[in-house]
């Protein structure tokens, strides 16, 4: 073989191996996102949520449709929608129970013929309802994961949603699913 061809092949192979070692062209979600944790406080309650990127907080004072003061955090990308809501009691009415709030989602998914499942999970010893669903909207299928729990008089509602056929969204979901910590501060 000609020295020039041999040198070109060697250079290409060396370049390809450097790209592989550097992770360029990787489809691994861990290479694309900087996973971390975000601490969120509402009232006397504090949680830590595993995320692929930081969420922003709505700066406006928000009242939910059912009349509760609510803190809203969220973030969206092409692959994933993440939303965290923290409801506090209204002056004239108590918060709904965890079961009541989770069942609202179940009812809505059944109305649109979505597949839905409800489990009870523990988040640092705090019982939570985990609603998993798939549904179709405008011809596109989505996967939905929701956690609802009560801590120190704050009703938390955490939602992850992504297009079901989006592998990056599915991989992100696997990395953050069930990774919610409820801070257990000792009294006194």
Automatic annotation (TrEMBL):
<feature type="signal peptide">
    <location>
        <begin position="1"/>
        <end position="22"/>
    </location>
</feature>
<protein>
    <recommendedName>
        <fullName>Lipoprotein</fullName>
    </recommendedName>
</protein>
<keyword id="KW-0732">Signal</keyword>
């Amino acid at each position: 073989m000609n020295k020039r061809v041999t040198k070109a092949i060697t250079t290409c192979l060396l370049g390809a191996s450097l790209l592989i070692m550097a992770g360029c062209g990787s489809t691994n979600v861990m290479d694309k996102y900087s996973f971390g944790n975000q601490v969120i406080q509402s009232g006397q309650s504090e949680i830590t949520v595993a995320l692929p990127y930081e969420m922003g907080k709505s700066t406006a004072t928000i009242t939910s449709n059912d009349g509760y003061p609510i803190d809203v955090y969220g973030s969206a990308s092409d692959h994933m929608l993440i939303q965290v809501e923290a409801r506090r009691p209204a002056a004239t009415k108590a918060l709904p129970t965890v079961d009541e709030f989770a069942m609202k989602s179940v009812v809505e998914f059944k109305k649109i013929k979505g597949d839905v499942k409800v489990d009870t999970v523990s988040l640092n010893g705090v019982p939570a309802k985990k609603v998993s669903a798939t549904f179709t909207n405008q011809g596109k299928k989505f996967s939905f994961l929701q956690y609802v729990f009560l801590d120190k008089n704050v009703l938390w509602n955490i939602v992850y949603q992504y297009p079901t056929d989006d592998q990056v969204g599915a991989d992100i979901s696997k990395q953050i699913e069930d990774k919610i910590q409820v801070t257990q501060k000792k009294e006194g």
